[in-house]
Amino acid sequence: MRRHRIASRHEVSTPVRPEVEVRRSARRTRTVSAYRKDGKVIVMIPARFTRAEESEWVDTMLLKLDGSGPRGRRTDEQLMKRARELNREYLNGKANPSSVRWVDNMTTRWGSCTTGEATIRLSDRLQPMPVWVVDYVLLHELAHLIEPSHNKRFWHWVDKFPKAERAKGYLEGVASAASLGFDTCE
Asked: Which segments constitute the YgjP-like metallopeptidase domain (predicted)?
């Protein structure tokens, strides 16, 4: 596999934020990405960015990584709103939960539904996962309000979600990695 040359690299650190390594690449033209490695944040940017653009992107990526940015912690209110949207889009408005919320005590399942009370709970472990994975689990639990068991009718509703198989595979991969001792939270 061919490795890409990095145009330049430098580190930025202040008392109020983690150590940041900025990697400028001539091959990278428009995209910016960031990840954590060995206790520091690596931010990869196009080589042509000015120092001002670099600073702005470093701040943006730090916010995203620490959870207070656009992909930060989703609230119970946002989860209920998304449940209503998914219900309309995929379930013809047939599932009407009385409560949808995040819980931090669910360690063996991704979500649960109490059909008698029409309540849905999703594990906090889903918080850092892609939106389409959370949507799949939420839709799965919503479908239980229409069809309590995992029968053909239940899967008819769930499989309307375009990324259902992909989300199942993602969750299976996370579960498998966790069972092998890998940290799946970052």
From this structure: 96-171
- The string of pLDDT tens digits covering residues 38-87 is 778 889 999 999 998 888 888 888 877 765 444 457 899 999 999 999 99
* CB contact set of 180 (below 8 Å; sequence gap of 6+): none
Q: Tokens standing for 81?
A: 């709103």
Number of H helices, E strands in the chain: 5, 7
Q: What architecture does CATH give domain 76-179?
A: 2-Layer Sandwich (3.30)
Helix (H) or strand (E) holding 138, with range, is: helix 131-146
Residue-wise pLDDT tens digits, 148-175? 999 999 999 999 999 999 999 999 998 8
Maximum Cα–Cα distance across the chain? 60
By the 10 Å C-beta count (0-12 exposed, 13-18 middle, 19+ buried), 91 is classed as: buried
Residue ranges covered by each domain of the chain: 8-66, 76-179
- Statement: residue 13 has pLDDT above 70: no
Tokens representing 25? 């690449």
Higher model confidence: residue 38 or residue 142? 142
The residue among 27, 18, 68 whose CA lies nearest residue 48 is 27
